[in-house]
Structures are given as structure tokens and as C-alpha cells.
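We were asked to recover a plausible sequence for a given structure. The inputs and outputs are reproduced exactly as logged, with field labels preserved.

PROBLEM: sequence recovery
POSITIONS: 79
GIVEN STRUCTURE:
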């Protein structure tokens, strides 16, 4: 039996990113905490948004992990 080698590159940077609903690109602002991202999203993106943790690597594309998904907030405000 041969040895199995799993390549796991080191993470160089971790940040929290916000993606508006119907958007294809993350906003330019990066957040350090989830709470900060939620507050910003609820203030500026009432149509909905998603929050991701983005792990960046030195030689590879970043990986994005979904943390929270907020639907249309305007419906809740009207109630």
C-alpha cells in the first residue's frame, strides 16, 4: 500500500465578506467580526445579503464558507 499525501496549503489571511442579494461580487469592505458584518448589512442592504468567511492562500484562489443568509429585511420592517 502506498502512502497518501494530502496537500493542505497554509491560510495567509482570514476575513469576513458580505455579498449583497443579486450581487456577483463581494463588497470592497472587509470585516473582522460577524457582528460587525451583520450590522453593516442590515443598515445598507435591506433587500438581503449573505455573509462568508474567506480564507486566502498564497498560491491558490480563496475559499468562501457561508456563515449567514439574510432574506429581504424590508418585509420584517413593515410588520
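RECOVERED SEQUENCE:
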Amino acid at each position: 500500500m502506498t502512502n497518501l499525501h494530502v496537500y493542505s496549503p497554509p491560510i495567509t489571511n482570514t476575513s469576513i465578506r458580505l455579498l449583497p442579494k443579486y450581487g456577483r461580487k463581494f463588497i470592497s469592505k472587509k470585516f473582522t467580526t460577524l457582528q460587525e458584518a451583520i450590522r453593516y448589512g442590515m443598515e445598507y442592504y435591506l433587500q438581503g445579503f449573505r455573509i462568508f468567511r474567506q480564507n486566502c492562500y498564497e498560491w491558490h484562489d480563496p475559499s468562501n464558507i457561508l456563515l449567514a443568509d439574510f432574506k429581504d429585511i424590508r418585509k420584517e420592517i413593515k410588520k
